[in-house]
């Protein structure tokens, strides 16, 4: 199927309904404790909650004081306590200790626990073991979809990645299925479904089961979103491990975006920090968010000149024009001015940090790893990085990138890098290596198995089919990444004559300075082009996903051509801003519009921290 070329982008569904639903449900739960109450909130729920129901809304529903759930005794004098927490065992112990302390002191209070996004049986078991189950009422707040932007929904479950991809814990799969079920209930059925990965397959199957149980709801409705694509994070670790160079990605790598970003005094050029919601409503940000960083300064300075010109217009005005200017334009100009100075401050701060780190050298090494050139030089660079103790997380990331692109490290290199790392950063990191190995992020080639060489020789001697079987046998020995072979097959490293023009990008590779097309985005592009996995069998096999690539097409009689240009991409295990920028670019090129749903926003540092046993 040929893409419609550069049509006007289709309208996005209105996701504000998700916020209203979540808010109404929370208020309903709070109202079940009539009268004044104190609310204890888990720290990482504070930012998402602020997006749904801010303090003034909570106050309207008789929430008196707000406390953070932390490891110290609670000093609340209220007769009713409400806890808003994630379903974690440590939170249950915290609540049980609090209730038991009250019992000892002879205090009688009412306690309500609201677990989000799901109530797990294990949590109630803990309360029972601690002898407080009868004193506490437990409820579930099914808040699993937070609209971060017009085209971005997050489940705000950063722990999903570690729980599933390291521990093999499948408890969040139900949460994903419920979230998809809610979306299809609100925005019509999805006529075309594609997916790849074990987690994607399980989530999809469970979601389908939920749909069958409540069959009537979406029957006969017109779909608003034509395609849905589910993708596991472990299909493509490489993209998540690379340094980001688009503006939004760099802001995330530098300042950490969590439901907005905290810009410190070095950005705001005052003595205060400022929380900024980075979304499409920020007119300056929306124009630079997907740009390569090298273009951002030029754009901002041009914008500043235009702004100055608009301010200067007021010089020759008479009274009437001046009145119009003040009432209609001045407020907008001031707002734009404020945003402009913030983003210029952010750019300067990023530049300072990156110059200190010698960012160019780092990027050069990453590109060499992606292309498979100068591996020895890159290894020496990583060794130097470790010996200079630049940063434990950064060194780990580079080692993982080397391992995945090279299909595992040769035993000599693995041992040498690991020893140097432990000597440089401390032996407490030993368990982290075991985690990375289990997840397939940092592996050692089995002795005598510099496989690519063996495979190449073998495949020349036998037919493709037999060679495939042999590769499969090799791959099943360990979680193999086969990155080089996939990269060749999907043409991930663009061949460029002369300079790659970052001002006018020609393909998705611009998000990594023209050196590499994100694998996850290329897979999505190829499948959408073919409307199935046909012709991609070799890629699916190299991804070790033979039985987990699926397509499910409904009859397209009800879907409008408008809805067929809307694609919901679901990242299980996190998604980076670089991937979002790349797919936005693809959408603009092909007349599509992508909507993103992710378990959480991730980047290389978050990925490494999730695997680390040493808490920063």
Automatic annotation (TrEMBL):
Q: What is its main location?
A: cytoplasm
Instruction: Cite a single Pfam family from the UniProt record.
Output: Sec1
Picking any one GO molecular function of the record gives: protein-containing complex binding
GO biological process: what's one of them?
membrane fusion
Q: List where the protein spans the membrane.
A: none
Q: What's the name of the protein?
A: Vacuolar protein sorting-associated protein 33B
Gene source species: Peromyscus maniculatus bairdii (Prairie deer mouse)
Task: List the membrane topology term(s).
Answer: Peripheral membrane protein
Q: Name one GO cellular component term.
A: platelet alpha granule
On whether Protein transport is a keyword of this UniProt record, the answer is yes
